[in-house]
Amino acid sequence: MASPVEQFRIEPLVPFEIGGVNISFTNSALLMVVCVCLVTAFLTLSVRGRALIPGRWQSMAEVMYEFTANMVRDNVGSQGRKYFPFIFTLFMFTLFGDLLGMIPFSFTYTSHIIVTFGLAIVVFIGVTIIGFIQHGFGYLRMFFPHGAPLLTAPVLVPIELISYCSRPFSLAIRLFANMTVGHIILQVMAGFVISLGAYYILPGIFPMVFLGGLTVLEFGIAILQAYVFTILSCIYLHDAIHMH
Q: Which residue among 88, 104, 151, 158 has the highest number of C-beta atoms inside a 10 angstrom radius?
């Protein structure tokens, strides 16, 4: 039986190097391209008819649009409206990436920290730039809460700075860890089903039932983690625009 971590191995599909740097097209890159194509096709085909009474696919697209729009409005405010395209793209990319990884023999690119950290660092840098554009050097007040005694600055400023700089790490590790652990557990339980069911049908039923429930739970976690990643990005954006 294959190792539970074997499913996370990145395999080059089109080997390619430039100056000794490996930039091969991998299975992870392939799934990202598939994700972008699926999201584009889903949204394009769903709203192409623009029916007054939406059909099933148009309703799904509108629900996702409204869900993200409400998330931005509730957590960022009216000033966050212009950042909606980025937030919506971020949500759909993480959501479809999580769900594609649930397909057997597929690949979960959100289970690799380099991918989740790449998304998180884009959010972090973008939010920081927006903060300085909005407030200038006054954005540095983020690291010293308003009304705090000046004598506490040597303690509060390093704490706030460390807290601020840890945002991309916590954002990336949360998504990566949840997707990785969930898929490892599914792989281990599937191994129990195969090994027990191969010799004794009845003992194999119990892990099979548990595996079914665990799979449903993992689908919920996949959706939840895409939501958490996006809403935390909205909260960071709110802090950059409105400060504290």
A: 88
